[in-house]
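URGENT: need a sanity check before tomorrow's submission.

F., can you look over the YALI0B04906p record below? I want to be sure the sequence and structure line up before it goes out.
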Amino acid sequence: MATATTGFFQDRPTLLNQYDGNSALKKVAEFYLSHKTLAAVLPELRELGDYVISKEIFEWQEDAETNIPRVEHQGTFGHPKNRLIVSQGWKLLKAKAFAAGIISDSYERKYAEESRVVAFLKNWLFSASSATVLCPFAMTDGTARVLEVFAKDDERLQEWYNHLVSSDPTQAWTSGQWMTERPGGSDVRNTETVATSSYRKEEGAESRPNASANNQIENNATSDIVTVGTGPKDYTVNGFKWFSSATDSECSILLAKREGETGLSCFIGKLTPETVIINRLKKKFGTIALPTAELELRNHPVILLGQANNGVPVIATVLNITRLYSSTSALSCYGRSLHIAKQYALVRSVFGKKLSATPAHLKTLAHEQVQLTGLMFLLFEGISLLGQSEVTGLSPHREAVLRVLPGIAKAYCCKKATIGCSECMEALGGAGYLEHEIDINIARLYRESQVNVIWEGTTNVLSDDVARVMKGKRGPLMIGAFEKYIAEVSSDQSVLDEFAAWKKWVEGMDLEATRADARNVTYKLAHVIVRALLLRNAVKTGDRVDVEIAERWKNADLSGDAEYDSEILYGQKTAKL
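Structure tokens as predicted:
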């Protein structure tokens, strides 16, 4: 007879080092990093792989998700305070992420063009345990790149840049990215925020904007002193931003229309409670530790980035990076969910047999592992191309591929990952639906994954961008760029034939038909790229599991030889050969 404290108790799944215990991550690390770089960073990756499943980080995460952000709008006597309060756990998670080099590795460029891959390997490891703290990091990374490209000669902004790329938690800043307003999110044409020039044409002012502005805008990002610069790039903005997912940041990049103009310009400014008023915090399905707010901008001092009325191309630099972060976050949640499901299958018995020895269960989880592996290669291909573009440069056709690959990866990876998290939750039965213990809480991972399908462009928005690019004026050049790129990745005839069929299909449709079927256009192109990458990896390693995974991607259901299922999931030691 059982009681509440006696009888059968199910053993918990044991989480392994998240680098060594995730074969998909190890495969992309070994594929995209040279032997020298991998040997240099492997100790860091393994150390982080242990830390992200440590008691300490789960305590911080639990604190961040229990003591959720709140706003003190007024003091005792009604005086406005506009004070955002976040948990200690949230602050500690941010500090740890800074110190881990998740942003700084990409800008120190210790590993040259491979630095982005190193940074995103850490990102992937950390994300599933981060309470979504890497959302602000995504925008920070993108803003840092904008300043690196568009503000090299501005002393003020180079100082800000140094804060954004710092690995010292006492010096590091995060940045927001404010685009969404009530008239639209991805469609920013109806932006209502207005920028008014504060330039004062005093004698000699034109020749000394940086020097004067250094004294006019305080260097301390949390200062209560609000001073408006008077250089030719200084403005104040007024408007209302509907979503801000980095409300506790020190600065933010944003879009606004200059007074009397219809074009969008890109600006950056420090956050001060006097000029950035929190209207309310959003109640959300997930990401509850992340302070997402509606903000009113009141004479908020900002600095113009790039050319006026050219804001979208400037902020697009941010979007390519944030879309890679979204895909990384989704696949990190997917990878952690699958890891929990795999480990649970080793300890759970049904009808006298471990789930790990049950063919139907093995088949289901092997499908998820094969899918995760392919998606990881698609994501890290975009990351690798970005790193090469920033350091050594890319050939014109590969630069064209990079223009849309982060969006393709986000549309495909985030959608598949979210469905995959649900499948992994189901693999634990009723236990998968419970949220008692944060380290094995797949429900939380599912919620965190879901947001990545939406922000930085929904699946339809991103797919529509792909369709419009492929059918626009430069469409033939873009399709030709992909054709050349895929042929470089793999010479396998079945891959070349698959791309040729995609090309013929797309070229045979007009713009409206392509846009109507944009998801399929995007997904089928993503599938070709994944197959090409997996086949190249299989040729490189000669490993029979890599060959089997590449072969399974030929099939719509990713099915294959059942004899490989256990080996795909657990490696050769536990495989039934």
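My own read: The longest helix spans residues 311-347. The two ends are 41 Å apart (CA to CA). If you see anything odd, call me.
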